[in-house]
Amino acid sequence: MTVEDVRACAHRLDLVEGDTLPPCGAVPGAAPGVAARRLAALDAQIDRLTRLRERLAARLEGGSAAA
């Protein structure tokens, strides 16, 4: 979780009994989607890095073919 994720859920912390957190999604009134948003952000980063890697590899292959 990020600070942004905690901020999004902080207003519901008073619904948690005791010092332990309930299983994921078990807090009454909890908005679903924190994990889904994190996964989507990771997927976007992976896609971006994959495209960057492919461009770099293509440049390296093009450079070695010309040498």
Structural account:
Keywords: DNA-binding. This is MerR family DNA-binding protein. One of its GO terms (molecular function) is DNA binding. The chain has 67 residues and is mostly helical. The protein has one domain (3-66). 60% of the residues lie in helices and 0% in strands. It has 2 helices and no strands. The longest helix is centred in the C-terminal third of the chain and has 33 residues, at 34-66.
Mean pLDDT: 77
The helix content is 55-70%
Q: Return the structural class.
A: mainly alpha
Uncertain residue ranges = none
Name the helix and strand elements from N-terminus to C-terminus, one letter apiece: HH
How many individual β-strands?
Answer: 0
Sheet with most strands: none
How many distinct folded domains?
Answer: 1
Number of helices: 2
**What's the alpha carbon Rg, rounded to whole Å?**
21 Å
**What characteristic shape results from the CA principal axes?**
rod-shaped
Beta strand %: under 5%
Keywords: DNA-binding
GO molecular function: DNA binding
Organism: Streptomyces silvisoli
Protein name: MerR family DNA-binding protein
